[in-house]
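thread: overnight batch results

M.L. [08:02]
morning all. the overnight job finished for the chain we discussed friday. pasting input first so we're all looking at the same thing
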Amino acid sequence: MAGRVKARGGRTVALPDAAAVETLAELAGLGVFAVDASHTVVSLSREVERITGFAAAEVVGKPCLSLLRCPSCLKRCALQEDGQIEGARVTLFRKDGGEVVVERGGRALKDGAGRFAGGLETLRSMPPGSCTAAPPELDSLLGSLGRDYVVADGDLRVLGVSATLAQLLGLPRQELTGAPVERILGADLFGEGAPLRQAVLAGKRREGWRAVLKVADGTEMPVSLSVGPVDRADHCGRMGARVMIMIRAEADHEGSEEQIPSFGGIVARSASMQRIFRLIELLRDTDATVLITGDSGTGKELVARALHATSHRSNGPFIAVNCAAIPSELLESELFGHVRGAFTGAVRDKPGRFELASGGTLFLDEIGDLAPALQGKLLRVLQEHAFERVGDSRTRSADVRVLAATHINLARAVAEHRFREDLYYRLRVVPIDIPALRERREDLPVLVRYLLQRIGLRRGRSLRLSPPAMRALLTYDWPGNVRELENALEYATTVCAGQTVHLTDLPAELGASAGAGEPDTGDVATGPAFVSAGYAAGAGGDERAPWRDASPGRVAPPAPPAPPAGTRARSAFSPEESAEATRIAAALDQARWRRDEAAALLGMSRTTLWRKMKEYRL
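M.L. [08:03]
and the structure it wrote out:
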């Protein structure tokens, strides 16, 4: 190696003894090369020749970029600007086009005026897979939280993965290094033009996107991704582009969590809804007419579909007609059909809904809006199981089960002579009244969980609610019932930027009903944890367990309504009872509100636990 390099102004700067430097470098397993003030290669050792594939005669006297084919060096020379490079790992392109991972170091040389006069740089060849782009302690830290990760470069090529992720995929980490991220997480999210890829390349952060990992045993594992850019010093000391992808196994995939309670597509766990489910089961072998009543949005059509699905007519059609949505002058033709020439525009015979529903079920929604003239014709069908098409004299049989629904009070309509009394009793053979959502608040957590899952699957996101947002949902009266709840969640998940829906993301009326509670900063997963956090769904609307007071600096919740019959007010609990209530609540939390497990932890029977839960309003 040469012993001097030329500096600006024609002066030269002495280098350390070349032979000594090369000998020491080779002993340390390093390659060493020198550049002058104009970044021209002055000399290089045999190890640099081996690493890069270039002979000294090919690059000495040429710019250092002819030796180090490094994309980052095109943008900035850290050796000149920062004076040193320490332990930077980088991928170089060899002369033969192959790639090699090296650890790079270097020191700048200065002239008498302190100006850059050249420098010495070292290269150490790294074994395959040694460049993980993440500190080793990250594996254990994130692994303890049940998280995996992928670190990628600015072009979304893998720089490193967690050890557990590599095991799941059944591939060695070094094989994944350098691969496109889409190989691991799919082209739907990370392929060319995919929305998540475009967002990340634009420097944006995205949370709660759903993906599917194809694990080593051939199965598919649903996961949730949080992706964002991070700044990290690269091999030249420059804060370069890196992308961190956090991977969390979906807690709600089959077999991992308590399944959402449902019956025939109806999600509920309240006692009132369970009674309706039992009644539907009892009606499976009968064709009795059922009148379903309840406020708007409570799910009357869902109950009708469940009645059909569990009946012996389940193989037949289910035909639904909204009597309020069709003008009365057209509704008769819709229900009973018409023959050609029956009225202007009747150019052909057309069967009605009764014929289309033959062998199955006809659901007449909003039956309370039926015109008086049609009420009599419907009564005849229910009594005689026969009808005529409009404009026809031929009587046709009606092999159909009729279910009806309304949100109005038909008994009052009968008293006001707006609805036929005989039709009312003919329809009301089996009455089913669906309680409003405000009367069965214990259904709210499971409904929210179910709706968030459904919305998330449709949008490819994994969503959750913050505690203040969930409190707002639990304390709101829901005049629009389940339909309003679904619309509120659709709105909130549209406007929320990340994975967590906060109080400010909810519609204005819900935020106003929540009052001035604690700031919305935390996250909470949907499911039993909502109740275990002290949200007393099904406890008369009380937000907290009766022994918990408002924390200092927080606004206490509104005063709860009067306790249900058989329970006592908050002030009636003795210190011993409050302590027992706290102990029971802790056991329920530990058992994720599975009463049989909590009873075992407490050393009491399940019946005793249930009695105490009612007594303490848990």
